[in-house]
Task: structure prediction
Amino acid sequence: MQESRLRRHREQDTAALKAMQHERKNEGHKQLTYAAMELMNCVNEKIEFVPADFGFAFPLEKIQRRAAAFNNSFFPHIKLTQAEKSDRAVDYPLLTNRTCA
Result:
């Protein structure tokens, strides 16, 4: 009986951990998408983009790759993987209330 209870408890903990990991991954993906949108806004406005100025901790290359997945004309030299190409269809709204530094 004790073993059964411990097993159920472990299964519940494992499920909760997987849910938290999934949520964290989704939040990171969302933040990367926002960073890519900010980068594209700055490119359009011909203003320097410094990720840290927006609170982003992603490397610039990673942000550029995400931006290229949306619109490869921004960074035509970047060759996207098939996974990056198929990841274009994310419907995050453009950030209009932030401006480039």
